[in-house]
Request: fold
Amino acid sequence: MSLGAVFPTNKYGEKGLFYIGSQVEKSYYGDGFYLFGQATISSTFSSEFAKYTYLETLVSTFIQLSDNLTVAARFLQQSSWNYPRMRQLILDDMRGVRGYGIQGMAGDNRLISNIELR
Reply:
């Protein structure tokens, strides 16, 4: 858990913001099975109003079906609230997403998941 300090005024003219953030994670490994989970949340407060809030959840797993066959999956969810337009979640990374221009889709929420047969 991390705590921030109260700053007199930021570049947007806001006064008295207090930052708090936390991240927890847990993993498990068993016979041919692995599971990892992580949750991150942070926010700033100006009196009772929350601003610049961010939430991220990550789950990753694999299941070994045989010596030569494994199923792997990943789920990533991200959300941001009360952020200025400069802080958006971009759907893709620098490689892009098929059918869209590089960094062509942005917003306040992002959900990425994949399942692989290895």
In short: Residues 11 and 84 are 12 Å apart (CA to CA).
